[in-house]
Amino acid sequence: MLLLMRFCHLVSSFLLASISVSAADAPKWKALKPQTPAGFTLKTLVVEKHPEHDVELHVYVPDGEGTWPCILDIHGGGWKARQVEADKPMMERLAQRGFVTALVSYRLSTEAKYPAALHDCKAALRCLRAHAKELKLDPERIGCIGGSAGGHLSGLTAMTSGLAEFEGDGPFKDQSSAVKACIVMAATQDLVAANTGKKNDGALLFFGAYCDDKPDLYKAASPITHVRAGVPPTIFIEGEKDTLKVGRAEMMAKLKALGIKTAVHTLKNAPHPFWMSDPWCAETVEIAAAFFKEHLGEKEP
User: Fold this and answer.
1) Is residue 207 part of a domain?
2) Does residue 12 surpass a pLDDT of 50?
3) What are the percentages of helix, strand and coil residues in the chain, rounded to 5?
4) Which of 19, 63, 150, 196 has CA 20 to 30 A from 215's CA?
5) Can you give the pTM of this predicted structure?
6) In what helix (H) or strand (E) does residue 2 lie, and over which residues does it extend?
């Protein structure tokens, strides 16, 4: 019995030491705050006024001469929380890598039901193109990125590029809302598979119904539904400590079958939402900058 007690004590000591070492080795979470980088001006454009919320674009415009490719960020927050400020540090860093970067403040689920948010994202893209000269961006080279609920909207915005029924009634109808490249971060892409038989109150607030009551609505709002020839290259960034994102693997398989570039990057020890804090924001920016430079190109003199 004494030998058994000693053995158990040694095992417990080893496990505690291992946990201590793992905790010491784990990355230290560092909160980030927005700070407009030197050499850029932050401009705000009103895309469209609504009684419940004015849709706005916050754009980091380089002070220098030239024309830059552009990236639009679609923030997360469960479709019901406005997280533009939390996404700004990531977009500031991407701007410094050679892009005009923008963030859209779309209508939340507490303000208007789907498809209002998607229509706002489409209107924001058209607005960017309408103001291309002022914002020093190339209207032919625009991509999008989003995380969590914003990842759903980023994927849906990209996969529905060129489909008129998803445009909405917003302004700048003479402009395109298509994107040339897309990044989805930590987001479900098949809302039917994720919500069938479940009572997801966040989805209820966004759609106005549960999936079991309106499965066709959830299907039409799922990015995976609209994967087809001609949709843009799309990659996925996920956190190792986050939950499974339903439909991501299946959507990648559909993209690959069509010969459309796709990949998944899993960030070690990263939680949800990893892009709002370091060291994972820095890692995200490295991946995103390389991907967008490959598909959107560099600044033109």
Assistant:
1) no
2) no
3) 40, 20, 40
4) 150
5) 0.91
6) helix 2-25
